[in-house]
Design a protein that fits this description.
Structural class: alpha/beta
Bound molecules: malonyl-coenzyme A
Pfam family, one: FAE1_CUT1_RppA
Shape: globular
GO molecular function: acyltransferase activity, transferring groups other than amino-acyl groups
Pathway: Lipid metabolism; fatty acid biosynthesis
Strand order of the largest sheet: 3-2-4-5-1-6-11-10-9
EC number: 2.3.1.-
Order of helices and strands: HHEHHHEHEHEHEEHEEHHEHHHEE
Protein name: 3-ketoacyl-CoA synthase
Largest sheet: 9 strands, mixed
Length: about 450
């Protein structure tokens, strides 16, 4: 026994035996495994948009100008009632936008209750989610990721828990509730879903809901003009969006409509005035509301400029990038050195523009900054007219409009641009994977698209 052991040791250590290649082979295999794992985990996972649905408010929630004015006069007096009418007439909103039940009461105005906020949230969110599940045939238990962004209403349990409970989502669902992030949060949710897909290779389906619930501290009951302006602009709205990653394509899902190309975020909140230009505060009587500074457009222009410089480098064709850089470093007017005087032609990078419908001045401002045509901002103006400022969901109503008009062709590129408190400027860029059928039955635009575009007051 002892001898055989010795002879074995001799055999493997003898100089005449071939060199022991086991450790080298082991190391090589291990390195190859590490490399494969690294490539697998760092491979960019594609993200697709299966479909989306926008909430269509019920007729009884409609707010014609005359009712809004009368309501304002009865509650706040003639002066403020007329002020609100003046804002409304300049706002770009039409006669069919909607407010929740609470906002239709005349004195004594009921205080917004948690139950009332929940009712509105359930109506908006469940209607949109029901519709997108119906359209895609997705079984709710297949959903791996759930993200809801809602600026002003964040109950406990959260809005995501409300959806988990209603649709009986799996116990392993990864749910995230984003609040207080304003109107530019739509692309933030898309970006979060993209990162979660990347970090969880087995996750195949993500449901995103973007909404603002008006029966909440967002609805202002005081007399401060800068806070009453938001009551004039914000309206009921919400969108449910189903995203998928290649993992899920084994299942019998519909062919996706769009592929996500880019998500880009710009935050200028480090500057105090930019941070405060859209600000939730209490007035001198303790009424909570959102104060809109008259300087919003100035701060929005600064954030937009920074954002476009970064976005341009991602999306513009090379010659357009070079022209832009040349104007930055070698401007015709030497005083402009270090600032780009050339406005890049973003229409060379996108076929469709969905600019946040924050108010007429917001759409005008972006149109001017980018040198866009009236037709290029048509979706924004019409979404503002028909549905009002629906916060983070406005960019989805705009894509819905473009689809309902039958304008989306295979390979078209779509730019969703969110602008909002922070101050933030965020983009999501999509490429369409097929011609998108026009007006769909039951969709938010289904019963009115033929009347649009409508002429607007100057
Ligand atoms: C409010 C407007 C519709 C008003 O239109 P015009 O500017 O063309 O008209 P105008 O100047 O005659 O204004 C009409 C009346 O409103 C008053 N007014 C206007 N803006 C005001 C403000 N911020 N605070 C107090 N009063 C205001 C004017 O003084 C005037 O009063 P008088 O008649 O008494 O002289 C527009 O300026 C607009 O669209 N602004 C942008 C709104 C905005 O900030 N949207 C972003 C929302 S937040 C968002 O979407 C994102 C987020 O929350 O994250």
């Amino acid at each position: 026994m002892e001898e055989s052991k010795l002879s074995f040791i001799k055999l493997i250590t003898s100089p005449s035996s071939p060199p022991n290649s086991f450790p080298i082979l082991f190391l090589l295999t291990f390195a190859a495994f590490l490399l494969a794992a690294f490539l697998l985990f760092h491979r960019r996972r594609r993200v697709y948009l299966l479909d989306f649905s926008c909430f269509k408010p019920p007729g009884h929630c409609r707010v014609p100008f005359a009712s809004f004015e009368e309501h304002g006069r009865l509650i706040l007096g003639d002066d403020l009632g007329l002020f609100m009418l003046r804002v409304l007439e300049k706002s770009g909103l039409g006669e069919e936008t909607a407010l929740p039940v609470l906002a239709h009461y005349i004195e004594p105005v009921p205080v917004p209750t948690l139950a009332g906020s929940r009712d509105e949230a359930e109506l908006v969110i469940f209607s949109a989610v029901d519709d997108v599940l119906r359209k895609t045939g997705v079984d709710p238990t297949e959903i791996d990721i759930l993200i809801i962004n809602c600026n002003s209403f964040f109950p406990m349990p959260s809005l995501t828990a409300m959806v988990v409970n209603r649709y009986k989502l799996r116990s392993t669902v990864k749910s995230f509730n984003l609040s207080g992030m304003g109107c530019s949060c739509g692309p933030i949710s898309v970006g979060l879903a993209k990162d979660l897909f990347q970090a969880n290779p087995s996750a195949g389906l993500a449901l995103i809901v973007s909404t603002e619930i008006i029966t909440s501290p967002a609805w202002y009951k005081g007399r401060e003009r800068s806070m009453l302006v938001s009551n004039c602009l914000f309206r009921m709205g919400g969108a449910a969006v189903l995203l998928s990653s290649p993992t899920s394509h084994r299942r019998s899902l519909p062919h996706p409509k769009y592929e996500l190309l880019h998500v880009l975020r710009t935050h200028t909140g480090a500057h105090d005035s930019s941070y405060r230009c859209l600000y939730q505060v209490e007035d001198s009587d303790g009424n909570l509301g959102i104060s809109l500074s008259k300087q919003v457009m100035e701060f929005s222009a600064v954030a937009l400029k920074l954002h476009l410089t970064r976005l341009g480098l991602l999306v513009l064709p090379w010659d357009e990038k070079l022209r832009f850089l040349a104007s930055y470093f070698f401007p015709k007017n030497k005083k402009l050195a270090g600032t780009a005087s050339y406005v890049p032609q973003f229409r060379r990078a996108f076929e469709h523009f969905c600019v946040h419908a924050g108010g007429k001045a917001v759409v005008d401002g972006v149109k001017r900054s980018l040198g866009l045509t009236e037709q290029e901002v048509e979706a924004s103006r019409m979404a503002l007219h028909r549905f009002g400022n629906t916060s983070s969901s406005s960019v989805w109503y705009e894509l819905g409009y473009t689809e309902a008009k039958g304008r989306v062709r295979k390979k078209d590129r779509i730019w969703q641009l969110g602008l909002g408190s922070g101050f933030k400027c965020n983009s999501a860029v999509w490429r369409s994977l097929r011609d998108v059928k026009g007006n769909e039955e039951g969709g938010a635009w289904s019963d009115c698209i033929d009347r649009y575009p409508v002429p607007l007051a100057p």
